[in-house]
Amino acid sequence: MTFIRLISGCFLAVLLTACQTPVTGEAGAERDANLYDALGQRAGIEAIVEDLMYLIVDDTRIAFQFRGLDVNRFHSRLSDQICGLAGGPCRYTGRSMAESHQAMAITETQFNALVENLVLALERNGISTAAQNQLLAQLAPMHGDIVAP
Ligand code: HEM
Fold first, then answer.
1. How much is the CA Rg of the chain, to the nearest whole Å?
2. CA 91 to chain centre
3. Does 29 have pLDDT greater than 70?
4. Which atom of ligand 1 is nearest to 16's Cα?
5. What is the DSSP letter of 3?
6. Residues near 28 by Cβ (< 8 Å), separated by ≥ 6?
7. What percent of the chain has pLDDT over 90?
8. Domain boundaries, the chain
């Protein structure tokens, strides 16, 4: 599978818990404006998130978690979050990752499924392997707040 080659030696689940870059806060991981450009700026990020949402709906491992979702709000908040993390001119104003996910009892498998879909969405949008890895590294510190203990 193509996503495995992205993570240069780190298996996906390991990447998300162990191969982390230093962070300065939940939405304040070290920023790199080049990543914002590499993701295609705001329009590119919105397209990636849209593709991710289609993939989620088709993925029986996690689709049930998104039933009844406010699609527009999720799209705009996740786009804001990725845009901000990537060094773009956006500010995430949604709830904390702990608050927004704690009632869902999200498993490790579900978390990895979502990341797998994100990688597929990034691939479909022609995002370079280096940029994919940078984004995954920004998201990795959120793992502990999203997966149920
Ligand atoms: C790196 C992984 C993840 C990131 C970056 C992420 C990010 C977000 C963001 C930004 C929101 C919006 C919060 C708000 O509206 O205030 C959200 C909501 C949500 N997330 Fe995640 N999420 C991740 C993993 C997951 C996983 C693994 C699942 C389930 C399998 C999930 C299910 C949901 C659902 C259902 C909502 C909507 C909650 C609501 O509106 O009440 N997320 N997520």
1. 14
2. 16
3. no
4. 1
5. H
6. none
7. 78
8. 32-142
Residue with the bigger pLDDT between 19 and 124: it is: 124
**In this structure, are residues 145 and 97 in contact, taking their beta carbons and an 8 Å threshold?**
yes
What's the predicted TM-score (pTM) here?
Answer: 0.85
Give the CATH number of domain 32-142; options: 3.30.1360.70, 3.20.20.80, 1.10.490.10, 3.40.50.1010.
1.10.490.10
Which residue, by CA, sits nearest to atom 21 of ligand 1?
101
**Residue type at 52?**
L
62 lines ligand 1 (CB under 6 A): yes
Lowest-pLDDT range, 13-17, 75-79, 123-127? 13-17
Model pLDDT, residue 18: 37
Query: CA of 144: how far to CAs of 24, 35, 98, 117, 136, in Å?
Result: 15, 24, 8, 19, 14
Q: Quick one: pLDDT at residue 13?
A: 40
